Amino acid sequence: MRIGFITDLSEADFKFSAKNGIPCVEYNFSDNIDAAKSFGAVKRHMKKYGTEFSMIGMFGRNYISSDRKEADRHMHDAKALVDLCQDIGAPCFVTGAGHAENRTLEENVERASSFFGSLLDYAKGKNVRVALYNCHWGNFAFGPDSWKMLLPKLPELGLKYDPSHTFYDGRDYLQELLDWGNRVYHMHAKGGIKIGGKRFEDPPAGLDQINWGSIMAVMYHHKYKGDINIEPHSGVWLAERRHEGILIARRHLLQFIASET
What we know:
Blueprint: E1 3-6, H1 11-19, E2 24-29, H2 40-49, E3 52-58, H3 68-88, E4 92-95, H4 105-124, E5 129-133, H5 144-150, E6 158-161, H6 163-169, H7 173-180, E7 184-189, E8 194-195, E9 198-199, H8 212-221, E10 228-230, H9 242-254
Parallel strand pairs: 1-2, 1-10, 2-3, 3-4, 4-5, 5-6, 6-7, 7-10
Antiparallel strand pairs: 8-9
Helix pairs in contact: 1-2, 3-4, 7-8
């Protein structure tokens, strides 16, 4: 298990990772994947600073759109990023299941099962695993109600789990990890605080209300072998204290890990 962070792809981030002994990073695309076509500089940074990619993601895409051209475009981009994963040695591609729109859960599950089945077949040939994120962004399958229907159809599909989403939704993240932790391929560490029942902000892990020690205990139960990447997310932690926040979270999480391997 290793503790990394979400990079902005700047050389400064790779220099920061090397200076602080951070072994891995990830990057997430959304509407535009043009940056994937010019990863030459990023690969030079990886080699220069000895930093690996543990994941590439793409958020907010509607793979199950009724507009076939739109759905095909998103699938094309997903395959392009699987190719990027292979090229840079990232073992995992993470994405959502698509927008709920006005369809029933059953219909959305059928559409997503078809999409992921095709993507999994493609990724398997590239030696890349595929995981479903548990964020709401362009993703009807963010929790157990949909996982119970979708994941049994797709035994090779994993989860990218971020407990802060479950925390803010008012569900039990420890129960979800107990039930589904054996399907988790990758994790995000993003803090969460509620004050007066309302979301305050997302500080670094260790400055928040999420029980990261208990999370790690459950993941050890499942013999989790993936990475945990820190996600700077709000306010000051995305601005002038971004690197400080990453170090705060990393120090907190490292106490639960014997060694990063």
